[in-house]
Specification:
Elements: H1 2-7, H2 15-22, H3 30-45, E1 56-57, E2 60-61, E3 64-71, E4 82-89, E5 92-93
Antiparallel strand pairs: 1-2, 3-4, 4-5
């Protein structure tokens, strides 16, 4: 699972399911192993996709800036949480 957590840096689409399966690593069951294998099969099928971080970009040093804002149970009516995030790579907003 540690390797899958690392892959989440370049494959944010698997972040949720890897986090979900990681919760059960202290007492894993067969179903959790099957889920991990399914994630690996998914990644194998889409090996050409992902985010590539180059070491330098037109002479600039690689910089990745990440900002997040989380409001846990901020909505007084239904107690839902909200999350916002912002990435900046090489000074370019995404």
């Amino acid at each position: 699972m540690g390797s899958l957590r690392y892959v989440c840096n370049s494959r944010p689409d698997i972040g949720f399911i890897v986090g979900l399966v990681s919760r059960y690593m202290s007492e894993p069951r067969v179903s959790h192993m099957k889920a991990a294998r399914r994630i690996l099969r998914y990644l194998k099928g889409l090996i050409e996709y992902g985010i590539l971080f180059r070491q330098d970009y037109e002479g600039e040093e690689a910089t990745i800036t990440y900002f997040s804002n989380v409001d846990w149970c901020g909505d007084k009516e239904d107690r839902r949480s909200t999350t916002k995030y912002f990435f900046q790579v090489f000074g370019v907003t995404s």
